[in-house]
Predict the structure.
Amino acid sequence: MSAENKTYHRFDVARRIEHLLLIISFTTLGVTGLIQKYALSSISVTLVSVLGGIETVRIIHRIAATLFILEGVYHFIHLGYLLYVQRKQATMMPGIKDGKDAVQSFLYNLGFAKEAPKMPRYNFTEKMEYLAMLWGFIAMGLTGFMLWNPIATTRILPGEFIPAAKVAHGLEAVLAVLAIILWHFYNVHIKHWNWAMIRGTMTRHQMKEEHGEELEAIDSGKTDVEVDPQTYKKRMAIFMPLSIVFAVALVAGVIYFITFEETAITTIQPVYADVEVFVPRTPTPLPTLPPTPTLNPVAANTWDGSIGAVFAEKCGLCHGSNGGLSLSSYGDVFAGGTNGAVLVPGDPEASKLFTIAAPDGSHPGVFSEDEWDRVRVWIINGAQK
Ligand code: HEC
């Protein structure tokens, strides 16, 4: 094996599993989140239906979020172990050297610097990504909590915080996904394939390019001093109980986070029963009898109701109680004239007082069309008093 192909250990199995959990939770969050943010795009519509509908998508999103947070809890406690028990250096913390490395790297890429920077165990690109991840974790956790538990949130904060949290959550998601696709994928997959998170090791060639400073330290034998067993035991005696308390508290916090409020997923149950949304009005039943022209809405169709008045007006002048045919009272109408009855109840055509006074007739006194009609109906109905 040539010296350049010599490999250097970088990540143990636990870190690689952590990375795998991140891939799973982050990708799931990104996919199920973005199809909710851009719900109207055809890709989203297809994916939502493939995944089983919006309710399912939201549940998957929350399961992935829980996994993501639990990963964060584990990472935090493990960090405590590395810093307190093993007294490792906080190699992810950025410093001035990283700023210089970034500038030099930029100039080198443009051909203005002769040498690429010799970078530490974690170079500036990795530190930026780690901090972005940390920031994203906090920002997404907070805004996600607000969206997951809107009622609890609005007990403390004004209602505007919910739509604001939604916008922030969605835009930070776009930023995070783009950061992974552009920054992370470029640095570890496109520039060259980085096996460190899969095999756990890195070649000398790649170490030189990306972690030159660390490689020099390794070559010169400057490695981390192992903790002696006694000190280790002492520190673990403090770290273990503390970390257990922390772990229990944090996991309890996560459980509280995901369960303490019922939100839209469970409060609004979809209605699957057959509900008629359009109920036509029952048609009005047809009248049982065809309409008759009987009905005078103004006054009753009787002698006293209106007919008497009509006779008085149209006939009274000549057919009063001054001899001959009198039409001035109900009794007189039945009494008839010198030639006998002029009224046959039920039969207008046989009633002279009806036929003689037709509107187009030549009698000195005639009814109007309307009056004539009412008199006809009055006779048909039996010439009621
Ligand atoms: C301008 C006067 C005048 C008016 C108004 C008048 N009539 Fe006469 N009517 C007469 C005269 C005149 C006769 C013939 C003399 C008679 O038989 O008494 C007559 C005859 C009649 C007769 C025949 C009597 C019979 O015994 O054969 C009837 C029926 C009659 N009128 C109905 C009416 C009715 C109904 C009206 C109202 C719509 C009316 N008339 C309005 C003048 C009038």
Remarks:
- Residues 314-315, 317-319, 324-325, 327, 337-339, 342, 352-353, 356-357, 363-367 surround heme C (CB under 6 Å).
- The radius of gyration is 50 Å.
